[in-house]
Amino acid sequence: MCSLLGWGFLCCLLLLFSSGVQGAPGTPSAAPEQVHLSYPGEPGSMTVTWTTWVPTRSEVQFGMQLAGHLPLRAQGTFSTFVDGGVLRRKFYIHRVTLRGLLPGAEYVYRCGSAQGWSRRFRFRALKNGVHWSPRLAVYGDLGADNPKALPRLRRDTLQGMYDAVLHVGDFAYNMDQDNARVGDRFMRLIEPVAASLPYMTCPGNHEERYNFSNYKARFSMPGDNEGLWYSWDLGPAHIISFSTEVYFFLHYGRHLVEKQFHWLESDLQKANKNRVARPWIITMGHRPMYCSNADLDDCTWHESKVRKGLHGKLFGLEDLFYKYGVDLQLWAHEHSYERLWPIYNYQVFNGSQETPYTHPRGPVHIITGSAGCEERLTPFALFPRPWSAVRVKEYGYTRLHIRNGTHVHIQQVSDDQDGKIVDDVWIVRPLHGRRMYL
Ligand SMILES: *[C@@H]1O[C@H](CO)[C@@H](O)[C@H](O)[C@H]1NC(C)=O
Ligand SMILES: *[C@@H]1O[C@H](CO)[C@@H](O)[C@H](O)[C@H]1NC(C)=O
Ligand SMILES: *[C@@H]1O[C@H](CO)[C@@H](O)[C@H](O)[C@H]1NC(C)=O
Ligand SMILES: [Fe+2]
């Protein structure tokens, strides 16, 4: 008797479970998966993005109480994504923006519809204004296989160490692969981080297939440019994300190089008008201008495309970023960590010999692409260049603490050395005359 009842109960449970299984063959699921957050750029807001296998409504229920009723509701929309692979796999990507969030307050949410809800996640709304100290995790080149940095990033996230993540291009290796199933797997893998922190991105070369369609569809970045280039404000910083890939995949549109360049210039002009309030200008783009790795990548060439532009003269970014006094340039693509002395046109512009990063007279470059992927690490050239300050060929990621208007703290975490800090540096720039380097 008893055991019969027990079996019935178990069966029932099993049935319940199997109906919720993600994309199981023959049973498309309305249950949300691949939940992640992004900051749409307006204070007090946060966007939730997720995937379902059947079209459903797009709703987020949220509140400030850990358990029990979620009193607040926000609605959004979904778009249908059709992958470019032979199977033309189809899924539905939902976007809902929460507004009117209290700065710095913790929220609990779930997303979905009456046909299926996600589990509950937590996040903290970003603080408003300029007088606070944002903490970021920064890295590129994180794959679905060999994602070395993920376990520690998950732990850091649970402990509330960050306000946001900057993923500087190259995801999943690749999101389009296996008819975009690798993209699904990757997005599930990062969910424990990305469903709790705004996960801010830029495209890398591994996103290239079908004109970056997986990248454009899966992420929800500020602005109306499919996340290819955009900027946002965070405490005392203005952060600019852009695509180095427009310089390399010219068959998707040569005009994109020029279009982005003009956008960058006008965004930098605006940022400089607001520089008293937000002194730091930080850029992120996938392929570096400089690097001292032992490969044949663009950054190993004297006249790299990103630095000097097409044909060594059209729309190069080094002059532009120097002219507008960009403080910090974050890059990836090389699967290693490298920090440069303040640099412009191959000349080192230390603040002083003893404290090179105090009042630096040129932008500081950080290349952080060692979060872990199937391609493993990239070796360095035998002899470091005179402009290279620190090189670390270990898996890891960067912590960026924008302390206030004059001080930024950069640390490199090594996953090969159980979380040891293997680089630690402060950039100090005075508020006065911020834009000018000379
Ligand atoms: C690729 O995408 C960009 C931006 O979404 C678009 O402007 C361009 O026309 C596309 N190129 C092709 C060849 O479809
Ligand atoms: C910049 O500073 C570093 C550290 O003090 C030093 O090793 C390097 O030689 C300096 N470079 C120049 C060009 O002054
Ligand atoms: C900015 O932060 C640095 C490092 O914590 C500190 O020494 C400095 O006094 C701060 N400046 C202001 C204006 O608070
Ligand atoms: Fe790359």
TrEMBL record:
Organism: Otolemur garnettii (Small-eared galago)
EC number(s) recorded for this UniProt protein: 3.1.3.2
UniProt KW keywords: Glycoprotein, Hydrolase, Signal
Domain Purple acid phosphatase C-terminal: 362-423
Recorded catalytic activity of this chain's protein: a phosphate monoester + H2O = an alcohol + phosphate
Name of the featured protein: Purple acid phosphatase
InterPro entries for the chain: Calcineurin-like_PHP, Metallo-depent_PP-like, MPP_PAP, PAPs_C, PAPs_N, Purple_acid_Pase-like_N
GO terms of molecular function: acid phosphatase activity; metal ion binding
Ranges for domain Purple acid phosphatase N-terminal: 32-124
Keyword Mitochondrion found: no
Signal peptide (from-to): 1-23
Family membership noted in the UniProt record: Belongs to the metallophosphoesterase superfamily. Purple acid phosphatase family.
Source superkingdom: Eukaryota
A Pfam family that the UniProt record links to this protein: Metallophos
Domain Calcineurin-like phosphoesterase, chain residue ranges per copy: 135-337
